[in-house]
Amino acid sequence: MKKTVTIFDSTLRDGAQAEGISFSVEDKLKIVKELDNLGVSYIEAGNPGSNPKDLEFFTRVRQLRLNHSKIAAFGSTRRRDITAAEDKNVESLLTADTQVVVIFGKSWDFHVTDIIKTTLDENLRMIEDTVAYLKSKNREVIFDAEHFFDGYKANPEYAVSTLLSAQKAGADSVCLCDTNGGAFPQEVFEITKLVTEKLSVPVGIHCHNDCGMAVANSVMAVAAGAVCVQGTLIGFGERCGNANLSTIIPNLQLKQNINCLPEGKIQLITGSARFVSEVANLGLSDREPYVGRSAFAHKGGMHVDGVSKSPASFEHIDPELVGNERKVLTSEVSGRSTILSKIKRISPQIEKDSPETEEIMSRLKELEHEGYQFEAAESAFELVIRKHLGKYKPFFELFDFRVIGEYPTAEQGASARATIKIMVDGKTEITAAEGDGPVNALDKALRKALEVFYPSLSEVHLTDYKVRVLDEKSATAAKVRVLIESSDGRESWSTVGVSTDIIQASWIALVDSIEYKLIKDIEHKFKAYL
């Protein structure tokens, strides 16, 4: 029978402890719905006793109808020298009214004696009493053995006794936590194997990434007998982060033939990872395994030629298995096959030896000599192709724009104002906007003017803005390259502009970003019509 591993996502609890992350209640509800749609078994959502925001979340999440996921509340064992029924934090776990409760307790004797300052025996009673109390309230209880691997290495007998206390009290499962993220794969394998042989309840694994080992440690724990993996969907969490589920799930399901998600759901994992990244306002690394934008990107001519003949020659899986796509990058070292693959998306009839192919390759080299770079701005290169092939029509005409910066800034924080005059189909629109700097003001003014004619642009926002000086010796007269990444909440695209004027370079990238969005809107409508 095919092995199954349960996936336990802690993005909303452990992930929320990451630097720079602050989820609103609405954010958390959006992520719950996304993880449920992906097919995750458990969603650990926070501690209802820690703050009003989590308390509100637990009230509202009960109104959601979930198809796959169980919501789990998270908290500690009772405090020393009182009963679980007397502990307010334990009681708050019940007010969350979740089907599942996760209780963490100390399994490292050093933490027991020096951090929470109690006796080893009292710590065991704290675990047993808390688990038994929650079980008496008809909850599914998971016991997280905090600092388990450090504890095992220091005092294996005591570390295991904490698990046995939870098991004796009726815990439905236990989880071995590498809380400091310092364990190595082989020791995780060996210790997990020994533990699973001593327990009768299911064993899970919870790893942090402080040594860059969280994914490997999780996979090795499963190989040793763990049947539940805890982590966060895109790996963020306290310090260096948690085990990355968007890597672990494909590794187990596609490489090890272990069920992790319901049938047909793994194809959603790239979209889900990017969605969570967007809600968290945290950039997803392009080089993220499986789900990153560069995970299946090819640039060198020989690589591209190999992939075009047999994808398996340079790809370890078909990107469609995880909902990702192959990218053939465009640069001056790209071969004719690379450029042709881009052209054929727009004009399928053009061949490798067509004059248009040669002309576009020459134009690419000219632009890169000027300072353009299209590896990270494939959308901009698509517009270059369209313009060369006569398959491009401007969506608006610019009459003029004016940008004024000021110091000190206005009371509301805006440091620049922009006015712009455009024309669309013979109709003019003049607008103004304030922004945090000239580029932000210009961006706002342009979108404000165009939304009158193209309402879908209200969905678009900039997700990244980068400037690189191309010739430092020219000092403030240097040529700069501006790279802009935009998103409409479903897709992301990048465009580029080059000029000795940073505002002009930004304008070029902004216009291309907007026009690319409008072109794609037309294509989507046409496909829907067909």
List the keywords.
elongated; 17 helices; TIM Barrel; alpha/beta; 530 residues; 16 strands
If you had to describe this structure to a student in words, what would you say it looks like?
By secondary structure, the chain is α/β, with parallel strands linked by helices. Among the domains are: 6-280, Alpha-Beta Barrel (TIM Barrel), CATH 3.20.20; 297-385, no CATH class. The protein contains 17 helices and 16 strands. The chain has helices at residues 25-38, 52-61, 88-95, 109-115, 120-136, 148-154, 156-168, 185-198, 214-223, 245-255, 269-280, 301-309, 336-346, 355-370, 378-389, 438-450, 502-529; strands spanning 6-9, 42-44, 70-76, 100-106, 140-146, 173-178, 203-207, 228-231, 297-298, 327-328, 397-405, 416-424, 427-435, 461-469, 480-487, 492-499. A hairpin with a 4-residue loop joins strand 15 (480-487) and strand 16 (492-499). The two termini are 44 Å apart.
Helix proportion of residues, in percent? 40-55%
Q: What is the mean pLDDT?
A: 89
The SS-based structural class is alpha/beta
The major pleated sheet works out as: 8 strands, parallel, barrel
- Count of separate DSSP helical elements: 17
Strand content: 15-25%
In short:
The protein has 530 residues and is an alpha/beta fold.
Strand and helix layout:
Layout lengths: L5 E4 L15 H14 L3 E3 L7 H10 L8 E7 L11 H8 L4 E7 L2 H7 L4 H17 L3 E7 L1 H7 L1 H13 L4 E6 L6 H14 L4 E5 L6 H10 L4 E4 L13 H11 L13 H12 L16 E2 L2 H9 L17 E2 L7 H11 L8 H16 L7 H12 L7 E9 L10 E9 L2 E9 L2 H13 L10 E9 L10 E8 L4 E8 L2 H28 L1
Parallel strand pairs: 1-2, 1-8, 2-3, 3-4, 4-5, 5-6, 6-7, 7-8, 9-10
Antiparallel strand pairs: 11-12, 12-13, 14-15, 15-16
Helix pairs in contact: 1-2, 1-11, 5-7, 6-7, 8-9, 9-10, 13-14, 16-17
